[in-house]
């Protein structure tokens, strides 16, 4: 089943790369919010200065649904883009279908094996060969807060979910929206995932990676749903269908106190010119301070025919791992670099704490893949979880026991 | 993702209207022409050939292909591992699909009834020698020109309880006014109805207006001479003669309802939860986002079944009617 | 054809009724206009006014900066050229697609109505059913077909897709219109030695204006407003304006610029709006001609 181009061909490719300099890279992505777009611009500039043509193929939509439709349509047409932004397990699915091109030579030259943490490099390999390049590591279990609002409401930063609910009620009483949230399935799941993580990494992994029915039906899971339902009263009535960055701007503008969202939200704060520790503060989501739920963005490289394109593709992969790019991109995006041992002085305190947590958690086993962002299970299981979670959050009558039943059944049906 | 899809609908609309009319026109059905074989005899077939080919391939071919996929375990991309009726079984065990189907029932029923009612009433009102009829007609008709991709944000605002109609009315002094259907799972489907009626009812009005303008003036005059009131004239003479228009409007509207996609994608994206999902959105989500092509194909086949259930009786009566002529 | 003249109730009652009638009609007009008015007003406000005001509050000053920005400098993803390039893309897709599908539709309708051959009615029925398939179904197989034809992700490819799924509709329009033309007319012309195309060109086309207008308006609106095909089959440089609009609305830099979003939305809708407003009269007239009088 070795469908990807291997060995000799790769050498031939990298040789031809040396000969033909300029090529086109068409990059399909869904980085369209402010911080994200600025980050892509960095990569674009790098490629242009390396003599290539950057063809920006942005297809908006937070979860990337439209972008994935485009990718499938292009792949089936036999005309895939040079590179596309896709997620962990999906890389394996594309690899199975033989669409991805081999980056081993670039990886070897760049010494990727030692540069990258295992959790990153394993996700980007298909059958032991590098097929994608990681641009960043996101931490999903973050809590963003507006200290001004907290001060006005006389509330303090919560460290457990029980405390969260107590403080949030104070904030609500003071006339602010406690929790900035957007009613989209993936945002509901992001919130849910952070609550589940507070039950410990073993529980989390058993539930969302191993999909153990016993854990899914456990009392802990029921209490996760209980907490989750309580949060429903802490969002404003206009949350329905709101995009995540609009929710972030509610915190930025001081309309809302807290957002539970991955660190891409920091990109929005940065783009709005806000300073961490002054205009906003970042804390791990309640009860998850030692844990790190990761969401890694990759650019997977697709098989392309033209030699110029192939060369440009290899160059793209190389540039993505360059320290300069990793630094600039992640400063804009809010995430931390995918490669280890980067200089940290440019990054802010939130990023530092993220980097520390990443290193610490990878040795304690508290480094877990994000379910809400497709790192833990395939898209079928993920979809099944989304359905139950979002339906539960929005239906006043469903009990936690019912939700747990539905979750266990839905996951079973989609495996 | 803001979705897509532009009212694919009313293809049939003219067809229906025109077919009705054509039934009344006198036209021999069998033609006796047998001149010698020339290029001209082949011309009609040559001209039709491209359409024939694309219809066979791009409509029926694809349909059959989708039908085949619905019996396979296809996930991210099509595969041919046959699993019998498994996907259909999964489909009807899927809570979300049941919600989508029942939404279609509620949404479709209300949408059709309200559009027909508004269409008839507005058309009759507009037919009363109204000043500035052209302007008013254009205003009623313009929503049809714009897709929900464009008006989606405005609609979301209008329906949103914190900054939309609710706030507007509350600011006017009616403090108890509540309009939060958009975030209420039990009511959100009515939001879809409102927006869909807004888009299509003007069009239905135009249909009926065209129908009204075509009613034989002598009939109306005769009725009036007999002393019938305006109301009676409409009820007894004019409306019954619009039956064909009424029927075509019904078919078009059911068609719009079944294909509705943009609407949900732009307004609610299925939410809250999945309470406002419609079958087309279910299919799209499963085929493309969730890598369940087999399940998505099965749902597409069920949708096609619904379409055929409406269309085949109609076509049957249509073609049979012609034979009797 | 109206009927107020013959049977007249008292003048007063009549006046009351007419006032009520106008009230209803104008209220409905206001309701229909509401979403558009909201968009228009929002596009003219600045961001601060949008935050502080209500949906229907008037802008304090009339500024078209947001329109300018939407047209030429707003960002969609990482390219900041506004929606103007995509606007042109849309025209490059729409114009040929409308022309080709209308022409094909006219010829097909002509054959199905006036040059019947064995199976042409059956084919018509098949065509009618065919245009009811949900478009989401055909995305994957069409992608493969376009790949085979070597026109994937090009303007040509998009034109092809729109023609394929438009021709069923246009054929229906023309077929139903031509049904009312007596077949004897064609027969007589044939006896005079006129050929297939001569008859079409000399006799049929001149009477087809109303239905051509209807078809062109219809197709133009459909194709211009398309998003699904546009997003699935376009390349990075052939995206139509609806796709660009969606990108633009989803791109924001620390706070949404609703005024720019709304301005872009209105710009994207302008061509179809113009067609309906300017040609709407002919649209309804064409309907009337085709539907009822023949």
TrEMBL record, chain A:
InterPro entries the record matches: Bact_solute-bd_prot1, SBP
Pfam families: SBP_bac_1 (PF01547)
Protein's job: Part of a binding-protein-dependent transport system for a sugar.
Residues making up the signal peptide according to the UniProt record: 1-22
Name of the featured protein: Probable sugar-binding periplasmic protein
Keywords of this entry: Signal, Transport
Gene3D superfamilies from the UniProt entry: Periplasmic binding protein-like II
Keyword Signal: yes
Keyword Transport: yes
Cellular compartment(s): Periplasm
Annotated family: Belongs to the bacterial solute-binding protein 1 family.
Recorded superkingdom: Bacteria
TrEMBL record, chain C:
TM stretches of this protein: 20-41, 93-115, 122-143, 155-178, 199-220, 262-284
Subcellular location: Cell membrane
Membrane association type: Multi-pass membrane protein
Family annotation (CDD domains): TM_PBP2 (cd06261)
A Pfam cross-reference name: BPD_transp_1
ABC transmembrane type-1 domain span: 87-279
InterPro entries: MetI-like, MetI-like_sf
Entry keywords, A to Z: Membrane, Transmembrane, Transmembrane helix, Transport
Membrane in keyword set: yes
Main location: membrane
Entry similarity comment: Belongs to the binding-protein-dependent transport system permease family.
Name of this chain's protein: Carbohydrate ABC transporter permease
Protein species of origin: Marinomonas sargassi
């Amino acid at each position: 089943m070795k469908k990807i181009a291997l060995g000799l061909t790769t050498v031939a490719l990298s040789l031809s790369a040396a000969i033909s300099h300029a090529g086109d890279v068409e990059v399909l992505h869904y980085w369209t919010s402010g911080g994200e777009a600025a980050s892509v611009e960095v990569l674009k500039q790098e490629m242009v200065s390396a003599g290539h043509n950057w063809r920006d193929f942005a297809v908006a939509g937070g979860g990337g649904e439209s972008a994935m439709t485009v990718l499938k349509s292009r792949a089936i047409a036999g005309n895939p883009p040079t590179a596309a932004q896709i997620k962990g397990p999906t890389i394996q699915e594309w690899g199975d279908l033989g669409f991805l091109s081999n980056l081993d030579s670039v990886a070897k030259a760049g010494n990727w094996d030692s540069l990258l943490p295992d959790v990153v490099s394993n996700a980007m390999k298909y059958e032991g060969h590098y097929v994608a390049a990681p641009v960043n590591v996101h931490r999903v279990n973050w809590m963003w807060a507006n200290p001004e609002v907290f001060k006005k409401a006389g509330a303090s930063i919560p460290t457990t979910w029980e405390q969260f609910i107590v403080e949030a009620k104070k904030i609500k009483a003071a006339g602010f929206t406690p929790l900035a949230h957007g009613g989209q399935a993936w945002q509901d799941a992001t919130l849910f995932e952070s609550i589940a993580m507070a039950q410990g990494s073993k529980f989390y992994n058993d539930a969302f990676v191993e999909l153990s029915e016993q854990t899914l039906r456990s009392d802990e899971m029921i209490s996760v749903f209980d907490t989750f339902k309580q949060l429903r009263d802490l969002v404003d009535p206009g949350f329905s269908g709101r995009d995540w960055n609009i929710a972030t701007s509610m915190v930025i503008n001081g309309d809302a106190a807290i957002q539970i969202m991955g660190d891409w939200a920091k990109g929005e704060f940065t783009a709005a010119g806000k300073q961490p520790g002054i205009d906003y503060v970042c804390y791990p989501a309640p009860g998850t301070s030692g844990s790190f739920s990761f969401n890694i963005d990759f650019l997977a490289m697709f098989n392309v025919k033209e030699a110029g394109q192939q060369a440009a593709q290899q160059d793209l992969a190389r540039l993505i791992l360059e320290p300069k790019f990793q630094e600039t991109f992640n400063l804009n995006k809010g995430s931390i670099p995918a490669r280890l041992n980067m200089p940290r002085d440019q990054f802010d305190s939130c990023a530092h704490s993220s980097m520390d947590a990443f290193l610490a958690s990878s040795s304690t086993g508290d480094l877990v893949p994000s379910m809400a962002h497709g790192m833990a299970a395939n898209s079928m299981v993920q979809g099944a979880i989304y359905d139950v979670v979002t339906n539960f959050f929005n239906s006043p009558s469903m009990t936690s026991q019912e939700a747990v039943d539905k979750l266990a059944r839905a996951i079973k049906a989609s495996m | 993702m803001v979705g897509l899809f532009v009212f694919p609908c009313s293809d049939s609309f003219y067809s229906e209207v025109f077919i009705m009319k054509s039934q009344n026109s006198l036209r021999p059905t069998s033609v006796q022409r047998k001149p010698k074989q020339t290029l001209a005899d082949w011309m009609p077939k040559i001209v039709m050939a491209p359409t024939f080919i694309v219809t066979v391939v791009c409509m029926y071919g694809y349909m059959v292909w989708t039908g085949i996929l619905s019996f396979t375990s296809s996930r991210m991309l099509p595969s041919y591992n046959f699993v019998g009726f498994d996907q259909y079984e999964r489909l009807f065990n899927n809570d979300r699909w049941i919600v989508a189907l029942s939404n279609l029932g509620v949404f479709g029923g209300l949408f059709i009834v309200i559009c027909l009612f508004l269409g008839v009433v507005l058309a009759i009102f507009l037919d009363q020698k109204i000043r500035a009829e052209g302007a008013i007609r254009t205003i009623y008709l313009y929503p049809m020109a714009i897709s929900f991709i464009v008006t989606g944000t405005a609609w979301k605002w209008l329906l949103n309880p914190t900054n939309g109609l609710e706030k507007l009315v509350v600011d006017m002094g009616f403090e108890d006014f509540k309009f939060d259907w958009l975030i209420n799972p039990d009511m959100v489907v009515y939001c879809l109805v409102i927006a869909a009626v807004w888009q299509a009812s003007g069009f239905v009005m135009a249909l009926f207006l065209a129908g009204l303008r075509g009613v034989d003036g002598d009939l109306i005059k005769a009725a009036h001479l007999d002393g019938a009131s305006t109301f009676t004239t409409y009820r007894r003479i004019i409306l019954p003669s619009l039956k064909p228009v009424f029927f075509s409007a019904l078919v078009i509207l059911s068609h719009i309802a079944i294909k509705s996609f943009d609407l949900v994608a732009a307004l609610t994206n299925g939410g809250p939860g999945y309470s406002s999902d419609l079958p087309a959105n279910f299919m799209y989500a499963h085929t493309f986002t969730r890598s369940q092509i087999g399940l998505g194909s099965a749902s597409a086949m069920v949708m096609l079944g619904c379409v055929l259930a409406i269309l085949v009786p109609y076509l049957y009566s249509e073609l049979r009617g012609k034979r009797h002529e | 054809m109206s009927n107020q003249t013959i049977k007249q109730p008292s003048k007063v009652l009549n006046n009351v009724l007419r006032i009520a009638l106008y009230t209803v009609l104008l209220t409905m007009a206001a309701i229909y206009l509401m979403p558009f008015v909201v968009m228009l007003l929002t596009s003219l406000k600045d961001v601060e006014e949008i935050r502080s005001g209500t949906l229907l509050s008037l802008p304090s000053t009339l500024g078209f900066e947001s329109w300018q920005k939407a047209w030429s400098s707003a960002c969609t993803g990482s390219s900041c050229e506004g929606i103007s390039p995509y606007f042109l893309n849309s025209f490059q897709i729409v114009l040929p697609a409308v022309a080709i599908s209308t022409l094909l539709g006219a010829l097909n309708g002509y054959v199905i109505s006036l040059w019947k051959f064995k199976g042409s009615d059956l084919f018509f029925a098949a065509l009618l059913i065919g245009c009811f398939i949900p478009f989401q179904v055909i995305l994957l197989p069409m992608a493969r077909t376009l790949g085979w034809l070597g026109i994937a992700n090009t303007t040509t490819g998009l034109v092809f897709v729109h023609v394929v799924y438009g021709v069923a509709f246009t054929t229906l329009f023309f077929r139903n219109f031509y049904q009312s033309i007596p077949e004897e007319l064609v027969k007589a012309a044939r006896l005079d030695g006129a050929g297939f195309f001569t008859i079409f060109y000399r006799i049929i086309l001149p009477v087809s204006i109303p239905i051509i207008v209807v078809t062109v308006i219809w197709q133009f609106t459909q194709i211009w407003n398309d998003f699904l095909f546009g997003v699935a089959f376009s390349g990075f440089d052939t995206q139509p304006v609806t796709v660009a609009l969606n990108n633009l609305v989803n791109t924001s830099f620390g706070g949404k610029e609703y005024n720019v979003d709304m301005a872009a939305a209105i710009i994207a809708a302008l061509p179809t709006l113009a067609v309906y407003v300017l040609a709407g009269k002919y649209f309804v007239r064409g309907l009337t001609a085709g539907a009822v009088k023949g």
